[in-house]
Amino acid sequence: MNPSINSTHLPSLPHQGPLFHSATHTSLTDSQKMVMMKKHPLFSLSLLLMVLCYTTTISAQTPAPSPTSAPTDIIRILKKAGGFTTLIRLLTTTQVSTQINAQLLNSNNGLTLFAPNDNAFQSLKPGFLNSLNDQQKNELIQFHVLPTFVSISNFDTLSNPVRTQAGDDPDRLALNITSSGNQVNLTTGVVNTTVGGSVYSDHQLAIYQVDKVLLPRDFFVPKPPPPAPAPGKAKASSAKKSTDGPASAADNDSAAISLKLKNGMWVPLAFAAALLSL
Ligand SMILES: *[C@@H]1O[C@H](CO)[C@@H](O)[C@H](O)[C@H]1NC(C)=O
Ligand SMILES: *[C@@H]1O[C@H](CO)[C@@H](O)[C@H](O)[C@H]1NC(C)=O
Ligand SMILES: *[C@@H]1O[C@H](CO)[C@@H](O)[C@H](O)[C@H]1NC(C)=O
Ligand SMILES: *[C@@H]1O[C@H](CO)[C@@H](O)[C@H](O)[C@H]1NC(C)=O
Question: What domain count does the chain have?
Fold first, then answer.
């Protein structure tokens, strides 16, 4: 800050190099004196230097953000806003809130959450939420989250369908956003709604209230048949048993493998021979 103080300090401490701010100089020299009396001054000193470098780097990288240094907690924000009881419950039970808080700590892209209020959840078909399994509840909540921070004036920069954290299957998980001025329309193919207002924005996390729950089309179109159903697999393995010799079946047997680990090559060979002789 004060250039005259800086210029008097720096020449008097030439051995410390240009890495350190003037603020760290006094503490460094004091600690240095203490360290010199210890048995392993080099180790202690380098440890001290590492810590100082680390804290300096961290404070240099953090872009002077929130006045409160506590990490962002999406639940706390929604509780403070009020009217999001059901959303808070779903965010918590699906653990998406934990994931969101972690993402906010670890990513620079930020996040956008469309937050249906309690009225929105109440206007769903009765029993709808209870009809969803855990995986579907998770998908429903992730469908309300965009993996980037989008300010209210930047929705027109997105291209449709917009990718949500539920995935990007354009047939099942499409979310289209059209905007004009401050009016932002959302459609999923099942639900149309409009952004009702900004609940929270800190240049990293944006929360917008919506009057309807964004239901993905995925919940309403029939699923393709699952790829490998269990009965087919059982059939295939019994077919394999009938064509393959008993020795190869024994090779893949977990008992044979654990015997092999214990006693080397001979046990499974003996085991196979025993089977062949049956
Ligand atoms: C949003 O939807 C309303 C009708 O629901 C329509 O009148 C308006 O033009 C739409 N705005 C945009 C930006 O798509
Ligand atoms: C979303 O937008 C894409 C591209 O404009 C379009 O092909 C698709 O039909 C739209 N889907 C919905 C649900 O509106
Ligand atoms: C949503 O809006 C589109 C036109 O913007 C309309 O064709 C469609 O029927 C609406 N869907 C619902 C579920 O209201
Ligand atoms: C055991 O079976 C798996 C498939 O189920 C196969 O990939 C593997 O090669 C088999 N191992 C042996 C030793 O036959």
Answer: 3
Which atom of ligand 3 is found nearest the CA of 185? 5
Mean pLDDT of the residues in the chain: 74
Assess whether 102 and 171 both reside in one domain: yes
pLDDT above 90 (res 57)? no
pTM of the complete model:
0.60
Q: Which atom of ligand 1 is nearest to the CA of 185?
A: 1
Of the bound ligands, which one is closest to the alpha carbon of residue 237? Answer: 4
Q: Which domain holds residue 251?
A: 230-277
Of 124, 192, 217, the one to substitute when testing ligand 3's pocket (max ligand atoms within 8 A of C-beta) is 192
Task: Determine, yes or no, domain membership for 16.
Answer: yes
Both 164 and 267 in one domain: the answer is: no
Position 223 scores a pLDDT of: 74
> How many Å lie between the centroid of ligand 1 and the Cα of residue 273?
77
The structure tokens 């046990």 sit at: 267
How, if at all, do strands 176-180 and 183-187 pair?
A: antiparallel
Q: Which of 176, 183, 212 to mutate to test the pocket of ligand 1 (most atoms within 8 A of CB)?
A: 183
Please tell me whether residues 208 and 238 are part of one structural domain: no
Residue 21: pLDDT over 60: no
